[in-house]
Amino acid sequence: xxxxxxxxxxxxxxxxxxxxxxxxxxxxxxxxxxxxxxxxxxxxxxxxxxxxxxxxxxxxxxxxxxxxxxxxxxxxxxxxxxxxxxxxxxxxxxxxxxxxxxxxxxxxxxxxxxxxxxxxxxxxxxxxxxxxxxxxxxxxxxxxxxxxxxxxxxxxxxxxxxxxxxxxxxxxxxxxxxxxxxxxxxxxxxxxxxxxxxxxxxxxxxxxxxxxxxxxxxxxxxxxxx
Length: 226
Fold this sequence. Notes:
Helices cover 56% and strands 11% of the residues. It contains seven helices and four strands, in the order αβαβββααααα. The protein has helices at 5-23, 32-38, 94-111, 117-132, 141-162, 168-186, 199-223; strands at 27-29, 47-53, 66-72, 83-90. Helix 3 (94-111) packs across helix 4 (117-132). The chain is rod-shaped, with a radius of gyration of 41 Å. 11% of the residues are buried.
């Protein structure tokens, strides 16, 4: 269904009101003298300038890119493309402006049939932030937890592959467990001053105990044999 001039005018007015509510002082209506200075092709169009900053919270002394996005609604906008002109307000070269013009022209074709000025501002801002290296990948909470869990598992795998390093603390812990096992096997409390069992002695002692236990089991089996 074709729209008449009143429908277009109403939609364009609503877009301007929305932009003013969102952008506030960053959108201004151009005066006749400003339009003349810019040598705009169509003086009859009501033109607006949107200041698009790459970084609204820039520190003093820094000079992030700032774009002036000048637009005007054409008669059948948004079913036809709006008037668009870009200018550098800060830290944008001629080639930057030319590249942004190409990008936004393609974006306008993509958005044809719907209000698009805010989309154009967002597209321009994203491009400038990418140019500054501001758009780093930010992990969400779930991704962070997963990454940390994987890193911890990798660390443990490396420790298992390398073995547990011997420290005074780890040796003392092992020695206590060793003495406890010896007491259970020999029935005597280990005295470091009286006897220091080597690893060989430990296994020999354990073998003797196992043989004695095995002999006791054999005697019991013979006693129960009819």
